[in-house]
Here is the input.
Amino acid sequence: MKKTRKKPIFQKIGFLLAAFFALLVPMAYSNGGCVKIADDVFVQLTSAPVAPRVGSQTSYLFSFANRQGLISREINGTLRITKNGETVFSNAFKTSDGILAQKYNYQSPGMYEIFFDFSVGGKNYKPEDFLVEAVDWKTMSNGKNYFADKIIFLLAGIVIGAISIKFISKRASSKK
Here is the structure.
């Protein structure tokens, strides 16, 4: 019988750590959310991407729920996006399934507020505003190219990880 040599535990741990950190990159750009409460109604904002980017479309999903779940009655209202107190977008909406999908393309970086005024069954609601920061993806770090900084950081992490794994595996094999 041919003996198969088991991989040292350090190699397995190194591989698992590398895989874990590699998975963190997509998670950093995943959806984000926030919940506001208006009396007995919860309004949840989910956005993709988490930080809206200037010049790119941001997809929003607003969920209206109460303690029993999504509201299945008709909801009428207005959604407004403002910057520095000035309305930059307004949309009257009607939904009967408790979900409102909205897309918006931010034109300039800065802080924006998303306001809702809506009614369910004749009762008016006005939850707190959602605060959103739109960022200029290309110049997020003081006029430098932000994307290039991330690539350099990623490559440096890969090199350091490879060297660490090599060092740990040599050290483990020399102890045998």
